[in-house]
Request: fold
Amino acid sequence: MQALRKESRKRRAKILAVDDDPGLLRLLTIRLRSENYEVEAVPSAAEALAAAGRFRPDLVITDLRMDQMDGIGLLNELQIRWPALKVILLTAHGTIPDAVRATQSGAFSFLTKPVEKQELLDHVQRALKISGFTMVDEEWRAGFITRSPLLEEKLTQAHMAAGTDARVLITGEAGVGKKLLARAIHAASARREGPFLALSCTEVAESDLETDLFGYDNGAIPGAARAQKGLLQAADGGTIVLEEIADLPLPLQAKLARALAENQVRPAGTDQTEPVKARLMATSRQDLGQLMVQGRFREDLYYRLNVVHIDVPPLSRRREDIPLLVAHFLEQIATETGVRRTYAPEAVEFLATADWPGNVRQLQAVVRQNATVTQTPVISGEVAERAVGAGAGGLPSYDAAREEFTRNYLVQILQITGGNVSQAARLAKRNRTDFYKLLGRHQLTPDEFKSR
Reply:
């Protein structure tokens, strides 16, 4: 769970201009800035690579012929680091064959010097449109409070993905904001006016997952008055997110892979098919590559989903954001309660260096707890330390706490039934198949609970 900003922000498209001729670089900068683009100008490929990491451009315009590393070398380096970043090459007449080869290897286009202003602007507009820069309103990413270059890189990647209908796989630890990023991509996309629907593959029984995802006709569900569309049809013109896709049962993985391959959905209880009408994204906190090796995740589904892969960094890799997030959460609480709190400097220092296995979600919970129990305007370092917990144990994340509760519950119910799975499943109000899967996930064997 990330924070929400109060005000939408506007930003201009960012263009990185590269040319070792100071006069041409200055002219290029003036022309672009006159059209309200944000421009960073550098005289070499090496400086361009350094600037790209800091400036996060939406487009690069570079001269082809430069000392040390030329424009094609720069293009190759940029493609390795930011594959979706568009590059326009500037070339003299004698180097047009080189420029043509560069476009064949990934450059967006090339322009011949001297460049006409309107021709330059036309190429820039087309490149930005293809790159996904279709919105100047930054409300789409309002849920992310950050000054982290690492997270900014992921947001840039997300915005580029939003300009396409490509499927997106979002990975990362619990609490980093995977679903929030999926919602941001939806908000930045052409589908933003359509529905945004999420389905948890962890919390829903297998039989319900199938009907929720693919739908059913009247005869498939006893007592059903009418057919029901699955989310792949119900989210017509919108986006569906499958949360924790690693927990999707293998039979449904096969059915989903087939549906994505054919772009057709077959509702339960019928041989009729309907076209997939929603954009699909998926999240996972587990390593799907490792699960494939273990035979627990289908390879064909993995490659269908993993068209664009965004790995959201944990809070431990963006500690510079912790003071920002803490201040924002306190402001939220003050707005809700009318009571304003602040942290003592040593408390902020402690929070910025503490372990956060539950990431932003855990940090928000700690701040709320501190603000609730503290009666004074200033929250002390001692209060913060007590809330987080001394040592590595700390406050468990929501997911970790839920997993521990589930395992303890399963142990207790197996003890009550003496390891009888049928009785245990009935008590838990789950079918045997789902119950066995729960036991497997928590590495529990019924025989261990049978009386001997």
